[in-house]
Design a protein that fits this description.
- By secondary structure, this protein is of the alpha+beta class.
- It has 2 domains: 65 residues, no CATH class; 136 residues, Nuclear Transport Factor 2, Chain: A (Roll), CATH 3.10.450.
- It is built from 5 helices and 7 strands, in the order αββαβαααββββ.
- β4 and β5 form a beta hairpin.
- α2 packs antiparallel against α3.
Length: 207
């Protein structure tokens, strides 16, 4: 019997060809998606390590971001310096504002000390006699080996009583922990805990 020829191909052949095309297209799309994802990740990674800022004259300045570990010591020391400046640099006109800023940088241990000083009449004497308590230097040491980070700070300040000026050295200790950054109240994202005034001594004027 003579085999009849038709213009149509075998249905199985057509399906096989279609399946090959679908597999090829899907594979190509998957490879393209993976490559695009890698490109986006690489760009994002580079963006995290690089930034640009505009200077006052309009020029673009390239900035290099360092890792958080490298920045931690700088931020910890800056946080401690800022806190001690707010907490001990006081006069009749700024003490409320400075103490409010200081309380944002520490936990209840700082607030408790503030309340104790207030109960002892320290801030009333500041107002009554128009005293000026000015910080001269702040020197901190921080152990960053493990969180919470222990610190020890030596602050030198002087109290101006008009014709008399006395100089004091106070040593404080405590710990630092990470918290969410709060602009502008706590820009470093660190919080002082277990704050304690270890010693306070009067210095000779020539010291």
């Amino acid at each position: 019997m003579k085999k009849i020829k038709t213009p149509y191909k075998n249905i199985y052949s057509v399906l096989k060809t279609n399946r090959f095309i679908v597999i090829f297209v899907v594979s190509g799309a998957l490879v393209s998606a993976l490559y695009s994802g890698w490109i986006v990740y690489d760009v994002h990674k580079k963006a995290l390590n690089n930034a640009f800022a505009i200077s006052t004259d309009g020029s673009v300045i390239h900035l290099k971001w360092v890792s958080q570990k490298e920045n931690l010591k700088v931020e910890a020391l800056a946080h401690l310096e800022l806190f001690h400046a707010y907490f001990y640099n006081l006069d009749a006109s700024n003490y409320e504002k400075n103490l409010e800023k200081a309380l944002w940088l520490g936990n209840s241990s700082v607030d408790n000390l503030y309340r104790q000083k207030k109960a002892d009449g320290l801030y009333n004497r500041l107002l009554q006699y128009s005293l000026l308590q000015q910080v001269l230097s702040i020197d901190s040491e921080v152990d960053l080996s493990q969180e919470p980070y222990h610190f020890r700070t030596t602050t030198v300040f002087e109290i101006n009583r008009g014709t008399i000026t006395d100089r004091y050295e106070i040593v404080t200790t405590g710990k630092l922990i990470h918290v969410d950054r709060n602009y502008p109240n706590n820009t470093h994202g660190l919080l002082i805990t277990d704050f304690f005034e270890n010693s306070l001594k009067k210095m000779n004027n020539e010291d």
